[in-house]
User: What shape does this take?
Amino acid sequence: MHFHKYEKIWLVFGIVALTIFLGVVGVSAFSHDHTPAGGMHTIDPKKVNETAPFDKPGVTQLDDDTYQVAIVAMAFGYTTPEKLRVPAGKEIVFHVTSSDVVHSFTIDNTKVNMMAVPGQITMKSYTFTEPGKYLILCNEYCGTGHHMMFNEIEVY
Amino acid sequence: MIAAQDRKLALSNIGVAYTAFLLGTLCGLLQVFIRNDAIQLPAWLDYYQILTAHGVLLALIFTTFFIFGFFVTGMSKSLGNFGPKVRLVSWIGFWVTVIGTVLATAMIVSGEASVLYTFYAPLKASGWYYVGLALFVVGTWISSFALVSHYMVWRKTNKGQLSPLFAFMTITTIILWLIACLGVVATVLFQYIPWTFGWVDTIDVELSRSLFWYFGHPLVYFWLLPAYMAWYVIVPKLVGTTVFSDSLARLSFVLFILFSIPVGFHHQLTEPGISNFWKFLQVMLTFMVIIPSLMTAFSMFATFETAGRKNGGKGLFGWFTKLPWKDIRFTSIFVAMAFFIPGGAGGIINASFQLNEVVHNTLWVVGHFHITVGTPVAMTFMGLTFWLIPYLTGRKFTKAMQKLGFVQIVTWSVGMLMMSTAQHVLGLLGAPRRTAFSSYNNHASTLEWFDGIISSHVTMAIGGSILFLSAMLLIYIVVMTMFLSPKAVKEKDMVEFPMAESGKASTPKFLENWWIWIGIAFALIFIAYAIPLGDMIQHAPPGAEGLKTW
Amino acid sequence: MAKYNEAPEADLKGTLICVFLVGLVIVVMWVAAYLMYTAR
Ligand code: HEM
Ligand SMILES: [Cu+2]
Ligand SMILES: [Cu+2]
Assistant: This one.
């Protein structure tokens, strides 16, 4: 098996570039906590409304700098008792699950793009920098009303 | 010329492929207009029903049948005519696949299966939809088995020899496909079918998604490798040279067996139930599968440069002008390759762990697969069609058809450039995929997305319309070359199968020792999947009940 | 691996430049996406 000299140069370049890409995302993810949405907690999809934190969906202040937002996605909306309002500059930890089919909880123009899977709890921590009204939408097909599934979160 | 019966088999496959293409692109046209709020559907028809049909007909049916048509022709050409048993088994495979297709399509049409081609539980379609899909897969296995036995007969009579490159690559693709399907067969047989027929009440959603994506990623390589086969084996002949390096071509193909399977989690980066460690491990494996594509890029340019220089191209880029640009069989595939450059680069972005959050399930993804499978693969298949059908029917590929071929390729390129660019930009702005027209109650963000010149629904709709026009031109060419063009009687009118020579004198024999590659592939699959899937099963939440939300 | 039957090293300077252009597309697109990610 013979590699042309230039092919070797090209492959070394390619492998180095790919390694750098992986290094950058890996370091940023694991040492600066920039991991994508996820989580290993499970939940009984039929008992979502009785299980904490989804028994009291909405915003809860945990301490001075941290807020928790619990959201249940369902066809075709998100259960939130009142309007969602969170402060800018504070860490917001979103907990999302679904009580029926798979949905997403996606906040436009942010890194919050979470799948909502029945039986699982998805978590994502995010800190808003800009106040404003952000569109929340479902970007995973969930049925006839999928394109009507949206909400809003206000950052103050 | 290959045996008449083998030609009939190949033509039947290609016929089904283009029937699916016709219906599928019609759905595509409707989609761009619905998203543009230009048409309102009657109450009995739903956007998501159309989208399900589009995905299934184009991504599954069109690709798979075309691939088998191409394989049958090439295997018969390079290894000799099929024996009676191989032919019989191939026909059985063909019919089982057709029955599966018809069953699944009927369920979609009747509105019982608007679950998209990924059929994520607990959306619950009619059980017959899953039975149809299962039959489809089993049918392809039977056809694969026929091709593998044809190959084994050849190996027996040609002991100690490396097989022709076309056959080698066909077998690689088939091995990849067989291993990949294990995931989808497992979930359909053991999860979906018992659940939809009411034998069990609930389904483990996260497990079904993981098994689906164990299949879903290699599925895209099952589309891509036949296109790569055309690039490696057909294109050199069209430009007037030989395969650049037989051994590296084979090496890149076996690397695909190794690295295209243990990577499915890169489709599940933003979901729960899989820890970051396993997600990232599969991201690293995903990056490995980029390497054989980098090798392919080099081989292609090297092929062009070698050929162009042989034809008198001088200087650094003189060879470029010496390529057979007037030959539509070549130009189509060249443009297909060009589309794959941004397509592949976009794929690297999608797979880059947390960067996936920016693009996941946005229209960017739709743009992405239209410039991977929708053009590099599909347009390579178009480029093959131009000679494959006349070769099989013994008809002429007339001057008029060649001109029309150019129009078809140019319109597809322009339409796709418009549509996919709009989709990429809209996706980056945040517009979701798989979503009918919605302004989200005229939310300011939504209005902003669609405000641009490129990022407007109009660009997408114009692009989509040009694409549909192009698709209809292609259908016309297919019908003409299949049934109506004049028969080629004179030697010079006969259309040939352009198969390039490939010097295998210095190709190491171990490349064709399949057990090595299958063994390593399973070892990698075990490493990437055993623990996370084991955990998922052990710590499974109570299952989810099925719902028909459409 | 034995090298005897391979063609002598062909002149592939154009190829080298072309693949590096491909590499450039990959790097530029990736960096742009990364910057977009960090900006959100
Ligand atoms: C006339 C040509 C075509 C047009 C106008 C078109 C249009 C579209 C549009 C607008 C969507 C996105 C819908 C959405 O997410 O809401 C879509 C999805 C899709 N297209 Fe195409 N397309 C065409 C050809 C193709 C071809 C040739 C292929 C593959 C061989 C293909 C494969 C797909 C797939 C797999 C999806 C995703 C389906 C899903 O999300 O479930 N398309 N197409
Ligand atoms: Cu939805
Ligand atoms: Cu993939």
